[in-house]
Amino acid sequence: YEYAALKLDIDNILNYMLSEIFLDNRDWPANNVKKWRRSDIKSPWKWFLYDLDFGFGSGFSENTDNIFDFATAEDGPDWPNGPNSTLLLRRLLENENFRIAFINRMTTLLSMNFESKRLLARIEALNDEIADEIERDQERWQLDAARMDEALSRMITFAKKRQGVVMKEMIEHFDLGKKCVVELVSEGRGSIAVHGLPLDRSSMSITFFKNVPVSLSALPAEGGTFKGWDDGNNDSVREILPCKVTRITAIFR
Questions:
Q1: Which of 49, 53, 103, 151 is deepest in the core (most CB within 10 A)?
Q2: 42: closest CA among 82, 5, 96?
Q3: d(CA 60, CA 32)
Q4: What number of other Cβ atoms are within 10 A of residue 143's Cβ?
Q5: Residue 41: pLDDT above 90?
Q6: How many CB atoms lie within 10 A of CB 222?
Q7: What is the per-residue pLDDT across 182-239, written as a single tens digit (0 to 9) for each?
Q8: Which residues on neighbouring strands pair with residue 185, listed in sequence order?
Q9: Is 81 exposed, middle or buried (0-12, 13-18, 19+ CB in 10 A)?
Q10: Under 8 Å CB-to-CB from 206, ≥6 apart: which residues?
Q11: Is-contact 89 69, C-beta < 8 A?
Q12: How far apart are CA 17 and CA 15, in angstroms?
């Protein structure tokens, strides 16, 4: 794992894998994979999203297996999830620190980037941007307006329901135990990161798991100073055990 961490940008690959999984992309990981690095061979590889038309409830794929099982299958067909394509994630998940970060980042993203309200607002904004072109586009390509309405309806349904599906399937795949909601609060000039993922709000309630420790980092903003946590701990990076801790505040000045 230490060698892999030199060759791969672990922070990037966590976000990438979790995004593909949340989006339910079933034309992956044996297809539509792109990565890059600088010409310097010491530069770590980074992945980026590419071609997601099988995701977000498009209906293009009939595969409805648990998405975590799908992305880590050892005996899948060459397409879409053959063993060569799932090998990297399977091996990374054998490392306990990566596996814990993978689980806790996903639950954090479900309350942040993948939150239903945020997705729905983004869909509405993007739809508004193209509204003036829709009629001409349908006329140019001889498309029925109902086709777009149906696709949009599927996306809205996906945005509303996907969080619960992902949580259920992750619990099943990793055999996770009791769920515990923890409120993370930052006061003053700074923020909190969960396993290196910065929160974008000063107060957020996140569902974690009783037997999965959570790594928290206090991140001072420019000109800010971390003063400690409200339970008396002054370490800028620390672990908490959900259920034992239900609310914690990072204090900055």
A1: 103
A2: 5
A3: 15
A4: 12
A5: no
A6: 6
A7: 999 999 999 999 999 999 999 999 999 999 999 999 999 999 999 999 999 999 999 9
A8: 203, 249
A9: buried
A10: 107, 108, 111, 181, 182, 183, 184, 194
A11: no
A12: 6
DSSP symbol at 7: H
DSSP state of 231: T
What phi and psi values does residue 177 have, to the nearest 5 degrees? -95, -140
Tell me if 80 sits within 8 A of 31, measured CB to CB.
yes
Q: Which residues contact 232 (CB under 8 A, 6 or more apart)?
A: none
- Coil/strand/helix, residue 187: strand
Average pLDDT of the chain is: 97
- Bridge partners (DSSP) of residue 220 are 190
Helix residue ranges, H only, the chain: 2-7, 10-23, 67-71, 78-81, 83-93, 96-110, 116-141, 145-174
Number of other residues whose CB lies within 10 A of the CB of residue 138: 14
Do the beta carbons of residue 250 and residue 226 sit within 8 Å? yes
88-119: pLDDT as tens digits: 999 999 999 999 999 999 999 999 999 999 99
Q: Minimal CA–CA distance to 207: which of 239, 236, 234, 170?
A: 170
- Per-residue pLDDT at 29: 98
pTM of full prediction above 0.85: yes
Read off the amino acid at residue 130.
Answer: I
Mean pLDDT, range 38-63, rounded to an integer? 94
* Tokens 């071609």 sit on residue: 51
